[in-house]
Every structure is written in structure tokens, then in C-alpha cells.
Amino acid sequence: MKVISSRDFNQDVSQAKRAARIEPVFVTDRGRTTHVLMSIEAYRKLSGQSETIVDLLAMAAPVALDVAETRSDDAWDNPVNRRG
């Protein structure tokens, strides 16, 4: 378990983020633990989340789309689009 002071955290956030990839980093303020920094993977495991909506959408199979079929030449024949 890594423990750093809030002063050290503020001076080198990148180092704290690197350490949090390996294990949670406890941040102290005047000797008292006030925050915990951890990787998103560790957080998801702790909270029981397996995947986010972004993960699920990224896994979706691509949809085949035939552009010729979806094009409507009649779109301009709509009376709403006509000016009289």
C-alpha cells in the first residue's frame, strides 16, 4: 500500500497516477488519510462493474448499410419541400 502526503501528490500527480496503476495510493492531509487514488480497473472490480456503456458500444457488430437502398429520390417530391 502506497501512502503519500497531499503536498507530494500536488507536486507530482503523474507519479501518483503511475503508482495507482499497480496498487491503490492513499493520500494524507496532516497525517490523516483523506483520499484514495486507484486505476479504473481496480475501481470497477471493487464496485462490481464489469463494463461501461462505452465498452459495450465498442463491442457492437458493425451494421451493413446499403447506401443505394437508403437513398430516396422521392424526398424532393414532398409537398412540404415545394415552394409555390
TrEMBL record:
Domain of life: Bacteria
Membrane-spanning ranges: none
Family note: Belongs to the phD/YefM antitoxin family.
Function: Antitoxin component of a type II toxin-antitoxin (TA) system.
UniProt name for this protein: Antitoxin
Species for this entry: Caulobacter rhizosphaerae
